[in-house]
Design brief:
With 180 residues, the chain is of the alpha/beta class. It folds into three domains: 51 residues; 48 residues, no CATH class; 67 residues, no CATH class. Helix content is 19%, strand content 31%. The strands form three sheets. Strands 8-7-9-10 form a four-stranded mixed beta sheet. The protein has a three-stranded parallel beta sheet with strand order 1-2-3, with no helix packed on it. Its EC number is 2.8.3.8.
Length: 180
C-alpha cells in the first residue's frame, strides 16, 4: 500500500499505525520526524519514502483532485529533490515536473458534517483535508459530530458533500507524542 500524507503520523494512530504495523510499502510525505518507526523502516529498506516539500505536496494533491497530470515548480532545483524527475524550461527558467497525486481511498478528518458529507473543519484541518477529499476516488470523512441536513451554516462549509462518499462519527483518539 502507498500512503500519502503531510507526515508519517504518530506510531499509534492514523497512517502512523499502518506504517508501524508494516502495512505500507511506500510513503509520500513532507517529513517523517513524528514517527521514529517510519525512519527505522526507511533505513532498513522496508519502507520506501518519497519526500516532497509541504507546499509542493499540497499542490500535487490539488492537481490530482482537479484532474491535472502534473505541476511545475522551481522548489528542489539543484538539490536531491530533483533526482529522477523530469525538468522543463519555461520562460528561460528551469522547473521540476512533479506528478499529480490521487488515491483510491482518501481519509479526512472534520469537525462537523451533515448526512450528505458537507464538511466543516476546525483550525488547520482546513489546510489540506479539502484537497485530499478531492483527490480520492472514494473519500471517507471521520467527523466529530454529524448533524441533521440543514443544520450547517452554508458559509462555513469548506468541502461540499459531492467529494465525500462515507461519513463516520469519530470515537476520539487517545494519543500522545511519539517521544513521550
Amino acid at each position: 500500500m502507498t500512503l500519502i500524507g503531510n507526515d508519517a503520523g504518530f506510531p499509534n494512530i492514523g497512517i502512523g499505525k499502518l506504517i508501524s504495523q508494516g502495512r505500507a510499502k511506500k510513503l509520500i510525505a513532507s517529513h517523517i520526524g513524528s514517527n521514529p518507526v517510519a525512519g527505522k523502516l526507511m533505513v532498513e529498506g522496508k519502507l520506501e519514502v518519497e519526500f516532497s516539500p509541504q507546499g509542493t505536496l499540497a499542490e500535487r494533491i490539488r492537481a490530482g483532485g482537479v484532474g491535472l497530470p502534473a505541476i511545475v515548480t522551481d522548489i528542489g532545483i539543484g538539490s536531491v529533490m530533483e533526482e529522477g524527475k523530469a525538468k522543463v524550461l519555461l520562460n528561460a527558467k528551469e522547473y521540476l515536473l512533479e506528478t499529480a497525486l490521487t488515491a483510491d481511498v482518501s481519509i479526512v478528518y472534520a469537525k462537523k458534517s451533515d448526512c450528505f458529507g458537507n464538511l466543516i473543519y476546525d483550525t488547520s484541518a482546513r489546510n489540506t483535508n479539502p484537497l485530499v477529499a478531492m483527490a480520492g476516488s472514494f473519500t471517507i470523512a471521520e467527523v466529530e459530530e454529524i448533524v441533521p441536513l440543514g443544520d450547517l451554516n452554508p458559509h462555513e462549509i469548506v468541502t461540499p458533500g459531492v467529494f465525500v462518499d462515507l461519513v463516520i462519527e469519530s470515537k476520539g483518539v487517545d494519543w500522545k507524542w511519539a517521544w513521550e
